[in-house]
């Protein structure tokens, strides 16, 4: 089988450091044909040292080299979309209408309303191409191993997520214009938080959440609107746990997930080390080193390429799972805005998103 042609829409930090290498990882599977960005210079900068020919498309590249021209290419089967959050839906729709399969970055949309609208639109206007949402935590080797261990230790009794870091002024991610002055809820808490909720859901069960309550804070004025979320979460089983996330803690750094089960505990430390302590047994730790084992981006891109080849999307990359990840963060933010008010967790999908194509036809 010939390699699958792929293009990347976006030229940001994550595209250069993760998506581009992922698309170049195996030339027998993938062929990176082109990269699009608003500015030609941005694309040229990230491919300057590449020996593989990669075509440049941009809004200032002249006639025949814009986004519409890229999407007309028959040798490109799918696109990876990694653009600012508010721009994503437009390019997702444009790409799907052009018949391209789409792997879009998270969050799935700026909020649940926009995400549900996008799912309804897709069902009606572009039902054939695959649309998946990238979530590297579900392909992260440490998280995959930890999930296997949790599944073998009986009922979950408690859990704790603790992610602490400092996004400093002048840092490469903070100085991204759309992140520096966010026009969407939660700022960095949304942008990064959807990955942490995905990791938690992966470990304790994707559909096990019942309700949550949270308080939020802004510790660093440059990280508006909030930089900290402290939440308690209840599962359908009655078990509860905590989710603590801050991007405004210069003196503290943590990236830990702890799951307490009937027959032992599983802890992911710093995203790379999994420690399992079975009842009455000594601890056992497994370290997952190297870039491939650490963040899962290459694995998720390869998985999507395989899905395109088969013509069927992956469950771990479904928009519905991405919506459920988003729901936890959005309701934490809303709970914080309302003084810790409890919110029910439903999965995030509106009823019309499930049968939206039928309702839209009836009411149009």
TrEMBL record:
Signal peptide: none
Gfo/Idh/MocA-like oxidoreductase C-terminal domain span: 151-340
Record-annotated Gfo/Idh/MocA-like oxidoreductase N-terminal domain positions: 4-121
The organism's place on the tree of life at top rank: Eukaryota
GO biological processes: NADPH regeneration
Family matches, as Gene3D superfamilies: Dihydrodipicolinate Reductase, domain 2, NAD(P)-binding Rossmann-like Domain
GO CC annotation terms, alphabetical: cytoplasm
Annotated GO MF terms: nucleotide binding; oxidoreductase activity
Protein name: Gfo/Idh/MocA-like oxidoreductase N-terminal domain-containing protein
Protein species of origin: Dactylellina haptotyla (strain CBS 200.50) (Nematode-trapping fungus)
